[in-house]
Structure formats: C-alpha cells, structure tokens
Amino acid sequence: MTRTKVAARPAPARRIRLLIATRKGLWTLTSDVARNGWKLAGPQFLGHIVHHAVPDPRDGRTWLAAARTGHLGPTVFRSVDSGRTWKEATRPPAFAEAGGRVVNHTFWLTPGHASEPGVWYSGTSPQGLFRSADAGATWEEVAGFNAHPQRKAWCGGDQDGTPDGPKMHSILIDPRDRAHMYIGMSGGGVFESVDAGADWRPLNKGVRADFFPGPPPEYGHDPHCVRFAGANPDRLYQQNHCGIYRIDRPSDTWQDIGATMPKSVGDVGFPMAVHPRDPDSLWVLPMDGTSVWPRTAPGGRPAVYRSRDGGKTWKRQDQGLPRSQAWWTVKRQAMTTDTRDPMGLYFGTTSGEIWGSRDEGRSFRCLARHLPHIFALEAWC
Amino acid sequence: MTARASREAAVVVRVKIPSPLRSYTGAAEVAVAVPVLAPELPPTVGGVLAALDGAYPGIRFRIIDEQRQLRPHIKLFVGGMLTRDLAMPLTSESEVMIVAALSGG
C-alpha cells in the first residue's frame, strides 16, 4: 500500500441532508444552503428497525438502508433516486446454511472503494462480513472472515457481546488501496486485512480490555467506533469501551488518548467523529461509564469534547446544549460530520433529538425532536 | 380455505398473510401453487413458503432464517393447529395462516 495522504477539499456551499436511521423507520432532515433552516421528511419504512442508512458518495444518488422488524427477518433496501423509491435486496446478507449461524440484523453499511462502483460491505449481528458487487441487490459472505478458522475465537459466541447482540461495525476501506480494510467488532476488537478480506489479523495492541482478567489479550476487545483520521488513512481513532485511542500506521500499537479527558467526565462513549480535512481534529461524546454504567451524559450535562492535536488535549464544547437534566444516550453510529467549511457536526439521541453545529462544535442547536430512538446519522452534501 | 390439485401437478393453497408481510403480497390472502413432485410426496409447509417466495420474492427470508427455522415471532397455523415443522405434509383441505405474534414495543 502506498503511504500517502489523501487530498480532501471542502464541499461547496450546498444543502446538507441527514439520513436518520431509527428504531421505528427512516427520516431525512434537509438544510438550506446556510444550514440555518432544516426540514424534516418521512417516515419511510415506518415500524421497521433501521440500523443504518447510508448514501453512496460515488454516484450521489444510491442509498442503502439496513432494516428488519420485530417480527420479520433482516433485509436491505436500496434506492437509486436518493430515497424517493426503494427496492428490497433479492438476496440480503445471510450466513451459509452449513454454518448454523443466523443473521439477526445488518448493523453497518459501507460503500466500497471509489474504483469499485457498486461494491458495498455490510457488517451484521452476530459478527459477519458481507459484500455486494451490485449496489446492494445481492450479498455474499466474505469467507475470508466468516469462515476464518479463528473467527469463533476472535468473536466469542453469538450470544456474547453487546446487549443488542454482538456486532461488526466500522468497516473502513483505505481510499488508497481497495484491498486494505479494517473492521471493528463488539466484541472482538479491531482487525486488518491487506488482501481484500481474504485474511485478517487482530490490531489491538495497546488497547485495554478491563473486562478480562490479566494483561490485555490479543483480541476480544470492545471498540465502539473506529474512524480514519480526515485526509490521513494512516491514522485511525477509536472510541472503545475502555478508552479513546489513536494509531499511526505502520505502528501496530494504539496510543491511549483518553487519559487526558477530565476525570469527572471520563473516556467512555460510543460515537466518534473526525474532521474531514484535519487529521488532528476529532470529537467524542462522553457517556457515564461509572458504577453500573448508565451510559448517559455525565451528570445530565451533555457535551462533545474536541481535540485539535490528535488527542493530546481536549476542549469541552457545549454551547447551546442543555445545562442540566439532559440524560442523553448517543449511539455509536449517531454522530457525524458534513464536509463543508466550517464543518458541520451532528448527533442524534436515543430520545429522538437531532442536534447540530455549523461551526465545528462551537455552538449547537436542536434541529429536530420527537423522533424515535435514533440509531444512526449520516450526512450527505 | 382449501387446497386442490391443479392440472399442472400442483396443489393450490390459500395462505392468510399478516399485515407486516402485505407489502409483499398486497393482499390479506393469496393463493400459491405448490408443485407435487410425486403422488407419495405431498406438499409441505416449507413448500408453501417456497412457492410464496416464487410469487413474492423476498417474503420467505422474512419468515424463516438461513437455517430453515421459523423466525422467533412468526407463527404458522395449519388447519388451526400451531406448527413449527416445515416438513409437515398438507392435505387437500389444509389451511395455512401466517401470524406475526408478539414482538415487543
């Protein structure tokens, strides 16, 4: 792989559209050019549990949505007209019959490399990796992971993992090399492939796993969200169950950058966002990880924390957010950025509110409320 | 509802469809033709679901998983009797009803 930076330019001043995946359907929230006025539209798939809805940056019109209902099995819906009409995948992600495993839901969707239009990857619960070569119409197992002889050891049992089921998430494709991929698993840890998913190796050195006795293991960790640093895919950040980390490849060791967070706030959280052009800028949204792990805004006072120096120091950003009695939970897919300049930062709560900043977190305001439990937020410019 | 042999060596079965699946069928009740491969091999519940999927692509995977098991909150009634046996043979008088049972809020 060629180790170069990736050019990134701000998007021109256009409207922003947020795709809001919720426990009860899909909504969109569209701004004016100034990102001042916002208009909510939807629902689509009312009553469906939509874990992720993602636009394809390669063609600007394809959207995929991962859905199931309380009764019905998991599927993927596809739109080629920016969400106006949808068709269901003819072969959604499903494990091989011989393996005995069952996809409970598709949790994560990632468009493939720019050189492979129509290729998508999906991560499921329990942990499985799938690939589509036809823009989400049919899905095949990535056997290099799903049938890997170590897969069971890496992931644990299908009943282990997060309360809503163990998950594969944070599928990252190196923009310089389509064969170079990372995945995150809760539980399991971060893994890397350099051969388009044919083989994988754990990449968790330096990351704590406080829920295991003894020294940290090689795998079995709980990354909540992993992101490439903006414009520098040799750097990754992760919000983990046990802290916040940065890695600068080719190093194979993560650096703990959560230790400098205020002790009263802690370094626990689910989502993470990065600046699209500044590899040193990132945001976390801390959740209370003390005592019985409430996983709510610490003290009922929500804030994002921004670092502009790769995690050496952090600054609290809470202008416009409630100052008390706001016991929010924000899930791992529910914070995102746009690519405008200045960048917009958005997050959605499990209590159905969307908050946004058009000045890189300096000030926030509520953009929508009264929505269902929000799972995921993606911005499209 | 009744099932009857057709001239194409198939049994036509009427199936009651619950509301979560009507986006596929557009109707609360549909008729599907289930092939009869041999006189000694009567159509089965699984055969009805396969025929249903042929007519309404995608519907089967919402009902049963990749291990051919009914999904947890789906129930099937044949002739008013609950069954989870997809190999259960159907008679010419069988009635199939798909029910989306309780699944939480």
Oligomeric state of shown chains: heterodimer
Give the topology string of chain A: H per helix, E per strand: EEEEEEEEEEEHHEEEEEEEEEEEEEEEEE
Counting DSSP E segments of at least 2 residues, the number of strands of chain B comes to 6
Strand content of chain B: 25-35%
Report how far the terminal alpha carbons of chain A are from each other. 29 Å
Write the CATH fold name of chain A. Answer: Methylamine Dehydrogenase, Chain H
Which architecture of chain A does the CATH hierarchy give at level 2? 7 Propeller
Roughly how many Å apart are the termini of chain B?
Answer: 32 Å
Helix fraction of chain A by DSSP (H/I, runs of at least 4): under 10%
**Largest sheet: number of strands, sense, barrel closure of chain B:** 6 strands, mixed
Strand content of chain A: 35-45%
Instruction: Give the full name of the CATH homologous superfamily of chain B.
Output: Beta-grasp domain
Structural class of chain A: mainly beta
Assigned CATH class of chain B: Alpha Beta
Question: Hey, which two chains have the biggest interface?
Answer: A-B, 19 and 21 residues
Q: What features would you describe in this structure?
A:
The complex is a heterodimer of chains A (381) and B (105). Chain A has 381 residues and is mainly β. Helices cover 2% and strands 38% of the residues of chain A. In chain A, strand 9 and strand 10 (128-132) form a beta hairpin. The mean pLDDT of chain A is 95. Chain B is an alpha+beta fold and 105 residues long. Chain B has one domain (4-100): Beta-grasp domain (Ubiquitin-like (UB roll), Roll). Chain B is 19% helix and 28% strand. Chain B is built from three helices and six strands; from the N terminus they run ββαβααβββ. In chain B, strands 1, 2, 3, 4, 5 and 6 form a six-stranded mixed β-sheet that branches. Chain B starts with a strand and ends in a 5-residue tail after the last strand. Classes of the chains: A mainly beta (381), B alpha+beta (105). At the A-B interface, loops of A face helix 3 of B.
